[in-house]
Amino acid sequence: MADIPETLHHYTTAAGLMGIFEPRGFPGWDISATRSLTLWATDARYLNDAQELTFAAKDLADALRDVVDRRSDADHAKRIYDMAGRIGIGNFLDPEDGKTTHTAYVTSFCKKPDLLSQWRGYGANGYSIEFPTQVLKKFKVPVLEQPEPVLGTAFLGGIELAQVQYKIDRAFIEREARRIVGATDYLSAFRLALECLAQFKHPAFEEEQEWRLFVSLPEDFTRCSFRASPQGMLIPYLPLRFTPHYLDDLSAEPYGGPRSSPVRWCTTSSRDSSSVDQAVKAGVTSSVPSVTLSAGLSVRERASTSRPR
How far is CA 2 from CA 103, 150, 163, 294, in A? Predict the structure, then answer.
């Protein structure tokens, strides 16, 4: 697998740009709404590749059957064989209740800040936002409206960041199969299986050179939101959240320094860069005008020279 780069780029529309920086609070914590970022992680089954989560499914199913030791624990082996059978045909229903769907939620990035295929597919007349990967790894998944005493938080970590693979890597799949077989419970095994499958995509999309931020959860574990696609389809997604504060210890120094905000602006390449800068800064830092912007984000607007003819 490739080394994780220092920064990655997210292509989006003007509406997406504003949604990322729109001030949102953290229920249960005394944190300014301006100290946050939001990314939408889309249910992988609704992405542009019809073979999302299934392109490598048969290979993973075969690897699970090869790796499991049927002699050491017959019951465990039976569960793994059952999981392999389900995964091999793209059935991600919970094996215990037969109703709850397990899936992976994905946010897409690219190493290149100005790639024509990305402008065409995701950021037409839009923007490319550069994220430090250390910031991406600190995004959290909302699982509850408010903190509960048992869990202690309404937000969970567990976000993964990886480069998409466009051909079957059997050595990688075998390593992941061993992790799945070694999981302590069925829910964890299913989560690991889906996170493995979310890292593969059909070779027809190789030009995108995609990196992904992803997490796998059963649909009853968190309440997803919905957005409408241009075709009128309802698309499930999770609003991933970032703040420089540590939610488990608000007395600790925030990520990036004691006066840090999640964003720092650089000059964009657009003729309209000043208005973009002012508009988003107004949303992010209006209540803290003297804040130090230090997490290293920059924005590039699509230049006219990048437009397809």
Answer: 25, 38, 7, 27
pLDDT score of 285 more than 70:
no
CA distance 302 to 62: 44
- Tokens at residue 145, please? 């409206």
pLDDT exceeding 90 applies to what percent of the chain? Answer: 34
**Is 112 within 8 Å of 282 (Cβ atoms)?**
no
Rounded to 10 degrees, the C-alpha dihedral 215/25/19/282 comes to -140
pLDDT for residue 297: 65
- Rounded alpha-carbon distances, angstroms, from residue 38 to 35, 84, 262, 308: 11, 35, 10, 30
Higher pLDDT, 141 or 96: 141
- CA 65 from chain centre, in angstroms, equals 29
Taking phi first (over 0 means left), then psi (-120 to 50 degrees means alpha), and beta for anything else, what does residue 292 get?
beta
d(Cα 53, Cα 40) in Å, to the nearest integer?
Answer: 18
Instruction: Residue 157: count other Cβ atoms within 10 Å of its Cβ.
Output: 13
Dist CA 298 CA 294 (whole Å): 11
